[in-house]
C-alpha cells in the first residue's frame, strides 16, 4: 500500500468530518459509483418492485427485502472505494470489483446476518443497540478488504473501535437516518414530478398513506453509495489513528525535502 498515492488526505478526523467527506468522495468517483449503481442497485430495486406489484407483497415485506438487499449491495461499493482510495477512477475496472466482491459475498452475508441478530437482541435497550452498532461498524471492511472470517471480523472491528465507540455511535446514528431521509426525498421528488409536472396524479399511491412507492424505494437505494462511503472513510480514519498513517506521511515528506539538501551537500 503506497500511502503517498492516497487520493484522500490521511489525517485524524472527527466523525462529523468523515460524514462531510463522504459526498465529495462519491462525486469525485462518480463514474464508477454510477456504473455500480446501475449494475448492482438497479436489479435490487427491480426485485423489490416485482415483489410488490408482481407478487403482491405488502409494503412491510418489501421494505424488509429492500433493507436486506441494500446491506448486500454495499459489498461491491466497499471494494471499489478501497481501490479508488489509491487509484484514479480510470484505473479501476468494474468487472474486477464485482469478481472480488462476489468472492467474499458468502462471508460478508454471514457476517451481516450474524450482526443483525445481535442488533435485534440488543433492541430492548436503545443505548445497547447503538453500542453494538458502533463496535461492529467496520465488520464489512474487515471481511471484504482484510479477508477476515465473520467471527475474526467481529474481533477486528471491536479492536479498531477501541477508544472511538462514542464517535462510532454518532456515525451509526447518521447512517441509520440517512436511508430514511433518502426514501423521504425520493418520495417528495417523484410525487412532485408525477403529480404536478406530468399531471398524472398518484398512480402508485403515497408513502405516507400506503407505506411505500417506487419513488421512495429509489431514494432509499440511492443512499447506499453514500452510506458505504461514509463507513469506509471512518474505517480509513480508524486505521490512520491505529497505524499512524498520518505520521508515516509526515516522515515521508521530511525525507523527500531532506533529499535535495543532502545531494547539494554531497555535490
Mean pLDDT: 86
Q: What series of H and E elements makes up the topology?
A: HHHHHHHHHHHHH
Largest sheet: none
- Number of structural domains: 1
Share of residues in helices: over 70%
Task: Write a compact overview of the structure shown.
By secondary structure, the protein is mainly α. It has helices at 15-28, 30-54, 59-84, 94-103, 105-121, 126-135, 139-145, 150-160, 165-197, 207-210, 214-222, 224-243, 245-266. The protein has one domain (13-246).
Give the key terms.
267 residues; mainly alpha; globular
Indicate the topology.
Elements: H1 15-28, H2 30-54, H3 59-84, H4 94-103, H5 105-121, H6 126-135, H7 139-145, H8 150-160, H9 165-197, H10 207-210, H11 214-222, H12 224-243, H13 245-266
Helix pairs in contact: 1-12, 2-3, 2-11, 3-4, 3-7, 3-12, 5-7, 5-8, 6-9, 7-8, 9-11, 9-12
Describe what this molecule looks like in 3D.
This protein is an all-alpha fold and 267 residues long. It has helices spanning 15-28, 30-54, 59-84, 94-103, 105-121, 126-135, 139-145, 150-160, 165-197, 207-210, 214-222, 224-243, 245-266. The chain starts with 14 loop residues before the first helix and ends with a helix. The chain has one domain (13-246). Residues 261-267 have low confidence and may be disordered.
